[in-house]
Amino acid sequence: MxxxxxxxxxxxxxxxxxxxxxxxxxxxxxxxxxxxxxxxxKFMALGGDYRRILVTGAIQGEGKSSVSANLAxxxxxxxxxVLLIDCDLRKPILHRYLRLQRRQGRGLLGAxxxxxxxxxxxxxxxxxxxxxTVDFTPPNPTELLGSPKMKxxxxxxxxxxxxLILDAPPAAVVTDAAVLSQYxxxxxxxxxxxxxxxxxxxxxxxxxxxVNANILGAVLNSYRPEGPRxxxxxxxxxxxxxPHRPE
Length: 247
Prior knowledge:
By secondary structure, the chain is an alpha/beta fold. The protein has a domain at 51-220: Rossmann fold (3-Layer(aba) Sandwich), CATH 3.40.50. Helix content is 31%, strand content 17%. The chain is built from 9 helices and 9 strands. The chain has helices spanning 28-45, 64-76, 94-97, 108-112, 117-120, 141-145, 148-158, 176-180, 198-209; strands at 2-5, 52-57, 82-86, 122-124, 129-132, 163-167, 186-192, 215-221, 239-240. Helix 1 (28-45) packs across helix 2. The two termini are 18 Å apart.
């Protein structure tokens, strides 16, 4: 498994549900971390088709929704048509991060019910991306995400966009991400430094591997170096052939 480390805010005792866009207003190293992630994905695409990318974590609070949104943002910066889809039908957050309206029948569930796609997609003008939010919380999220209608919807959307970024629930907690991975080209696993345990991350990987998900790599989020150089390396990123063991 490859490891991409995405710089983010300093580790805090509690998780802040705040979206920090990797745009021109962000610190330069923060922007560059996501651009490096974009470059690595495009490099991998030379050997295959990676246009439907599922982003998940091991447990809640690792920042998988922020990574999803920022990945969509940096992909759109290179003149790609990008659709960000909130597939977390249990605890959706992207509409809050991107300040979009949440209207019943005008999102992912509406699209699955047969509503016109143009009524189910919103445009986040600030980031130049299209977004499909979760319009309401259903009682059967796993069944909906694994349904033939979901497969057909993603195939239809893939014909209209260069990239589909799927923000999925944590893979160690529920089976939604594993079920949805069968309709994606690859999975990115977000790991927050000093947050999820090794056992939780391993469980997430095992759940994905059980359904033969194509795990592209991991994004180490909220990374902060330690030791003598920590104070002058608050933001950093690197690429490794082997993942580091989370603590």
